[in-house]
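Hi R.,

Here's the input for the copper (II) ion complex you asked about:
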Amino acid sequence: MKQIVFFILVCVTSVSCNAGSKAIDHAPLGVMGDHLHKKGEWMFSFRYIEMRMKGNLIKGQNASNEEILNRPNLFSSMPGMPVNLSVVPRTMLMRMMMPGLMYAPNDQVTLMAMAMFSEKEMELSVYQPMMNRDYIGSFQSSTNGLSSVSLSALIKGYDQLKSRGHFHLGLEKSMSDATKTGTVLTPMNMQTTMILPYGMQTSDNSTRGILGYTHVFDLDRFVWGNQILTQKILEKDVWAFGEKTIFNTWIQQSFSDHVSISGRLHYENQEDIQGRNASIMAPVQTANPSNYGGEVFSLAVGFNFLGSIFDNADKDRVAVELVIPVNQEKNGIQMKNQYTVSLGYQRSF
Ligand SMILES: [Cu+2]
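And here is the predicted structure with copper (II) ion in place:
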């Protein structure tokens, strides 16, 4: 860590690190598969992403705990179930670790393999099911595991001096089971173990196809990039997270060959959950498959650095990015995104 901080400081304050390529040659950290490699080149990457959520939204509008407690419970017809929601999510933290490899068998195609490990933690408050709806207590649930692995081909479509574009064609496979359990506190003030709601599962047992296109313009002092990615469910179990479309547009500027700054607009549109697991039943918003998906617009600011950490080859890339949501049109009742930070390391061989 010390070495990384030192390296960042050296690169911000001087332009003396000599260069083969430039910091600006790679997109902001949150954009995946933005570049191709030359024939025979390998690249290793590692991303650490932390996303926090706090509070709740009803159809995209801020909602208090009282408002949530007045919404109907989807499972109210089941014996012993409260009429209204009685458990309210307070905070959620997601940590994702993504190692990746890129390899170019030729100049037209770069292959990209990635794995995602994730860790989820949620804190929830529990209220009396009826009468005064008094606060009973809170509990935390957490899960972790290998979520998915993916393999993509990035295929060169257009390559000119000031403008380049490529297609994405990939497969993503969910890796862990979708039936992780946890001990929860019920509105009857009892502890029980259940299959945790969809949002706490690290995987959904699906196979997805990835299709996309990236285009980057070099406008002399700026770089302007655009990327659209869509996922389609090819195979699923009894339920799956909704299909997603992501659009990114970003502007980058160089401070030197070793440092670039970026601004990015991120748009994500996700469908609600397909199917359901009949054993996921609780008086909480996350147990209802319609309370998933929607549209989120976010803005991000990031830095890319290129220099030497492990030797003098000037090939170590470090990037950071902070993403802040600006508009969250989420379906139904959902938690509100607070921010996402990511830190990444990349190196080509
Ligand atoms: Cu690469």
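One thing worth noting: The first strand starts at residue 42 and ends at 58.

Cheers,
M.
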